[in-house]
Amino acid sequence: MKRLVLVGAGHAHLATIHGIAALRRRGVAVTVIDPEENLWYSGMAPAGVGGGVADRALYIPVAGLVRRGGGEFIRDRVSRIDAEGRRVDVGGRSLSFDVLSCAIGSRVNAPIPVLPGAPPPIGAKPIRALINDAAESLISGTTRVVLVGGGPSAVELAGAFLTRGAAVTVVTGGASLARRLPAEAGRIALDNLLRRGADVRFESPVSAIDPTGVVVPGGHIRADRVVLATGLRVGALFAESGLPVAPDGALRVDRTLRVPGTPVFAGGDCADVADYALRRAGVHAIRQGPVLRRNIAAMLRDDTARLDEYTPPPSFLLILNLGDGSAICTRRDRVRYGRWCAILKLRIDWAFVRSRGRRIVPSLLGPPRRRDA
Length: 373
What we know:
By secondary structure, the chain is of the alpha/beta class.
């Protein structure tokens, strides 16, 4: 019996997880290893932080999907991958594999020193910790939030914290918000945050986090909690396992999402795909899912001549949820703004969660709301 091991139950593995029953019928044993039994969907993170959406709308119960398909789910972290020996170390034991695939996602890049006595900052990832920490901070009376970063995640999180009643200061070393998007999107985001009472400071890189806030050029900003949206990076697993990695720790794979010459694949944020400088966006992980599923099946059949290549879409819809019932839609250089954008985003995201990752088209129904919202 051949063995497939999935390291991480991320977005890129959903298609393979849904196909576990078919793999089992072909005599393949499947093991999925992840420290969380639920996949907290990144698209729903702003709505979760904002507090208006029921918890069940925020995640996909991947452990249950694995077990219903006949696979084994191990709630733990892999500490090492031996690609040559075809083994992984997890929980003090070693598991063999014939094919292995990784979708462990990414974490916030935290290059800012945290001085003694300072509370640990909240990271934009992992999602579950972000939502739980945000709720705990605000429920306990914390109201002054400094959000470090100026990208799309920073914009969405600033809007979400404003919705929860926090006093928000956005601090970025850049000269604009969401600078990788069309300039109009950044202007709309800035106008929205300022109108709602946020303080936005440009060209103010944070040099340290201290017990009472953050240190910026020429001064200090007081904060009860600091939230980091300072970019993403992958953990040390791949580098420490001797696998080829990009500067940010992502596993280098070819266009088939395979580490050349090995039975190891990867998708989503943790994969650095040859010839493409992909933005870390859920759309790539979701679209890579079917490619991974087909290529994993081909590798299990020892049919490496039939591996498909992943081709990124030339453009895709990106919607920023501003947290006040409005959102910004962008695609290529086109920008739209309004309440209908927020409705569209929530219904797309709810369709994805409700279908357990099978649908990315809008649902007729919006996501369930919190009882106290």
